[in-house]
Write a structure and sequence with these properties.
With 785 residues, the chain is mainly beta. The protein is built from seven helices and 40 strands. The strands form four sheets. The chain has a 22-stranded antiparallel beta barrel. A hairpin with a 7-residue loop joins strand 27 and strand 28 (616-622). It starts with a helix and ends with a strand. The relative contact order is 0.15.
Length: 785
């Protein structure tokens, strides 16, 4: 009998996880308390023991605010031991990712690009290194999170950069934890690597207020195998991919290895008339991404080995290493004072993100009479700083109605420095003696010449915002409502040091009026109707704003930046209904629609490109409209209505669609999955002081089309299991298995040289790529004190 060693190993590890869980469950422990009702909008201090020893199953909460907000407390996520905020969001409605397998960085709410989703931490915006202004959620360890809020619509008190919606990551503060706990454990990967995970959190009284301190060190690791098959003809002309159209095959190992260090602190004073809060967090990432790629002129492993083909079939040997060091921190202060004319609040915040990446790519090309070595060295430095002030006052118009007026100021500075060098020379003997399994192209690396900035690689961007807003919010009987308007004004400038002095300094300004309204109607049978409408915007990508010309950036076409770009704007609405099930459960359905105007798409300027006739200079411009729509279901409840109070189930399903017209015709928004769903259960065993559960997730395929390339992306399903044992009231240990189905990402690439070739379907290359990672197992223990 022949066995697949990957499948056999996976089954063995799953069996071991279940056996470990059975051993944990067999140990006696004191019974836990009954499930408590969900707190709708209330807050209270949790003891460390309540966090460490969860005697109840966590469910999705309902929020009493007029806005349509879904609240997921840490109890909803914690038993599956997510490593990051991105991992936690894999279990909530309408969030997709196009990340590498077993990574969850750029959250795509409603399936739209990360730049369409507003990411907040404790209600405040944070900068990141990404050109689309998004913040990668794998920067925030899940251990710091108190709750995650999905804000489906917008309001005047929040900045309008939320076409798809808002994800608010709420960190713990001193008034939400009493006592402390330590956490420790390890992650075990498919290739034998072990990574540590340790942390501690403490909250308690200090003087007139309360303090919270937290620290975490998290090992990160992702070993992946990739394979690519490239063909010189189109799939339309050759649906069977016959070998006479085969061009080359690439085998690649891609390993992400690093450590995250985090620290957070807050100090809060809640007085009779005055409240004060000082908070901050710090995150540092040390990470190395190592890729080794071999291209062969044969489509199979003809020597029968697991990876590789004899050296005589080797076309290229490539070694790529990227050393990444990222640091980010945020400091904020809040002061609220209640007096005869109402309540006045003042906030100040400062955030900074530093990204330093040093990348080397060394390649030997054997598909020549004389082998050639090419060495590329790139240094990237990005610093993004934001300073903000917010002042608002709430007037009590009656006991149940408030008028809130305020202003917001934000100054953003972004410095970008990209420098590079290329060294190329011929090798005389490598073709005859090269052994790709033992040798490495790095042995031919030389000391690089002074690095020089390419076009667009050295610039300074300043963006100053001045906003005013007013909002009425209140309650009347079973109706909760808000209505408001926000005026956003922005002054923008870019100074690019790689272009002619006459073009170096560019500026632009724009302003928008953003109305919004929401209402919530409580029905007597435990149901709620929510309805919202709002105007929002999406600001241009930062890498599109430089006036630099990038030659042959898009196939053989050039890319010219456009400092005159304006934000996209959108009118949108949400209509939902949710119903209470017993004391803990909620089931909901929501319809959403967005009409997007002034879409930023690449347009043909008509100017001939640097590669000659048939190529063009392309430029991002505000052109055309689009629409996004869908339906979202979610369920979170125990099965008490059939006598199973200790069985919790949860699930959600979203159907996502959109329409946009580009240079080739109609398509969906780039990267939007057609659907995403996940479901699972948690079984608590109070008499044994134990629990176990599972979650299953799947998202549909996505399509991207830009000039020169089309990408079809699909993901395999993801399965996670956990078993938990509680010892007394202070100690818990969990065993968790994730990616148990050996997650695989598949991509198909249609590649074209010119726009005319793309329209005529005259392919330059057709590529099939698959990426796979094995299961990850972790054992985590928490001890409260």
């Amino acid at each position: 009998m022949q066995f697949n060693h990957h499948q056999t190993g996976r089954a063995f590890r799953i069996r071991n996880l279940l056996l470990a869980g059975a051993a944990l469950l067999a140990s006696p422990a004191m019974a836990q308390e009954e499930v408590a009702p969900v707190d709708e909008g209330g807050e209270g201090i949790q003891t460390a023991r309540e966090i460490v020893v969860q005697g109840q199953i966590g469910y999705r909460n309902r929020d009493d605010a007029a806005e349509p907000i879904l609240v997921y407390d840490e109890q909803y996520f914690q038993r599956f031991e997510p490593l990051t905020a991105g991992d936690a969001l894999k279990r909530v409605p309408s969030v997709t990712f196009l990340s590498d397998v077993i990574e969850s960085d750029g959250a795509r709410l409603r399936g739209l690009e990360p730049g369409y989703t507003q990411i907040l931490i404790n209600g405040e915006k944070v900068p990141g290194s990404n050109a689309d202004r998004s913040f990668f959620l794998d920067r925030i360890p899940a251990e710091l999170i108190k709750q995650v809020e999905i804000v489906r619509s917008s309001s005047a008190r929040r900045t309008g950069d939320a076409v798809a919606g808002t994800l608010n990551i709420v960190l713990r503060d001193g008034y939400q934890l009493d006592g402390g706990y330590v956490r420790g454990g390890a992650l075990f990967f498919d290739d034998g690597e072990v990574k540590p995970s340790v942390g501690a959190v403490f909250g308690g009284a200090l003087g007139p207020g309360r303090i919270l301190l937290g620290a975490n060190v998290q090992g990160r690791y992702n070993p992946k195998l990739k394979s690519s098959f490239r063909y010189s003809d189109s799939p339309e002309n050759n649906p069977d991919y016959a070998t006479d159209d085969f061009d080359n095959r690439e085998d690649q190992t891609d390993t992400r290895d690093g450590t995250d260090y985090t620290f957070n602190a807050s100090y809060d004073i809640d007085g009779e008339t005055t409240d004060f809060e000082l908070a901050g967090y710090y995150v540092k990432t040390d990470r190395t991404e190592t890729e080794r790629s071999f291209e062969y002129n044969h489509p199979t492993n003809i020597n029968g080995s697991v990876r590789g083909t004899p050296a005589g079939n080797l076309l290229t040997d490539n070694a790529n290493v990227n050393d990444i060091e990222q640091e980010s921190f945020s400091l904020s202060g809040k002061l609220a004072h209640r007096w005869s004319l109402g309540e006045t609040k003042f906030k100040v915040g400062y955030s900074r993100f530093d990204d330093a990446q040093d990348e080397t790519e060394y390649e030997i090309d054997f598909d020549r009479t004389t082998p050639r070595f090419t060495g590329d060295v790139t240094a990237r430095r990005i610093t993004d700083k934001e300073l903000s002030f917010n002042l608002e006052h709430a007037f009590d118009l009656s006991d149940d109605v408030k008028l809130i007026v305020g202003g917001f100021v934000q100054n953003k500075d972004r410095d970008t420095s990209i420098a590079e060098d290329r060294n190329r020379f011929n090798l005389t003997t490598a073709a005859h003696i090269w052994n790709q399994q033992a040798a490495n192209p790095t042995q031919f690396a030389t000391v690089p010449d002074p690095l020089l900035s390419p076009p667009g690689g050295l610039n300074i961007i300043e963006e100053d915002r001045r906003d005013l807003y007013a909002e009425i919010e209140g309650k009347s009987g079973n109706l909760t409502f808000l209505a408001g308007v926000r005026y956003e004004s922005t002054d923008f400038s870019v100074d690019d040091l790689t272009v002619a002095p006459a073009l170096a300094e560019q500026s632009n300004d724009y302003s928008f009026l953003l109305p919004s309204a929401s209402l919530k109607i409580d029905l007597q049978n435990g149901g709620r109707i929510t309805a919202s409408v709002a105007r929002t915007n999406r600001r241009p990508r930062l890498d599109f704003l430089s006036p630099a010309l990038l030659e042959a950036e898009l196939g053989d076409n050039d890319l010219l930046g456009n400092p005159a770009l304006r934000p996209e704007t959108a009118w949108g609405g949400d209509l939902g209904y949710e119903h209470r099930i017993g004391r803990t459960g909620v089931v909901g359905v929501n319809l959403f629609y967005r009409k997007v105007s002034d879409l930023i798409e690449l347009a043909n300027t008509g100017t001939e490109g640097s590669e000659g006739p048939g190529t063009f200079v392309l430029q991002p411009q505000n052109t055309g409209d689009g629409k996004v729509y869908g339906i979202e279901f979610d369920l979170s409840t125990n099965l008490g209505f059939i006598g199973l109070e200790n069985t919790g189930i949860f699930g959600n399903f979203s159907l996502l669609d959109s329409e946009i017209t580009d240079f080739e015709g109609k398509r969906r928004f780039n990267g939007q999955s057609k659907y995403v769903y996940n479901f699972g259960f948690i079984q608590d065993l109070p008499k044994l002081g134990a629990a176990f559960g599972a979650t299953y997730r799947k998202q549909g395929g996505a399509f991207d089309r830009i000039v020169g390339e089309e990408i079809f992306t699909s993901y395999g399903a993801d399965l996670e299991l956990f078993v938990e044992k509680r010892f007394g009231e202070s100690f818990t240990i969990r065993a968790v298995g994730s990616n148990l189905l050996n997650g695989k990402k598949r991509e198909r690439f249609n590649k074209f040289t010119t726009i005319a070739d793309q329209l005529a379907r005259d392919f330059d290359e057709y590529e099939l790529e698959a990426e796979e990672a094995g299961p990850v197992f972790q054992v985590m223990a928490r001890l409260a004190f």
